[in-house]
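User: We ran a pulldown and think these components assemble together. Before we commit to crystallization trials, I'd like a predicted model of the whole complex to look at. Sequences follow.
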Amino acid sequence: MATITPSKGWVAKYAATATPTTTIDNLRSVRLGGGSREMINTTTHGSSSTKSYKPAPLRDTNEVALRFLYDPADTIHELVRSHWSAGTKGYLTLVAPDSGAANFVHEGNFIDWQVVDQDPETGLLEVEAVFKADGADSFSA
Amino acid sequence: MKVRIIKNYVQTGEHYGKKGQEIDVPEPVARQWVAMKAAELIKSDKKPGHD
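Assistant: Here's a predicted model for the assembly, 192 residues in total across the polymer chains.
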């Protein structure tokens, strides 16, 4: 399948081993987040008119939702599907389109894989795959 | 393990550093930063006068 999306926005790289170099082609969208932290309510009877909070020491690990135009013959698309199906650990790196190529490095598992849409004109399938990190992500810029 | 930061900024959880800093971080973090080309290991077993 020819490259349909231009080389703008995030570049997502995925592999079975650390520091992936292979790109997930035909990426439509990326949602990076999920690493939320609870706030512990520290309100006391001595508080004035507003509740008070402090951040919990631990936050959740990141979750990345990727949408791409699915090509079963694409090696990396198939790697994502097979890793999701078998529960195999993988490595996902997101590279931002800034001049310093800031990147987020994750290791973990694809926990969800869905064909969410098909284009009525072209018949192209769109897959949403959700990756959950199993530990702290690394950021560099 | 002791590393020298070579990218502008790098962070893994509570461990972070800016370019040029030499800091001690746990081995898995150090290995990942080196793999990301964000840091380089500082060898501590060097003899004085031998770079």
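The first helix of chain A runs from residue 75 to 86. That may be worth checking against your pulldown data before setting up trials.

User: Thanks, that helps.
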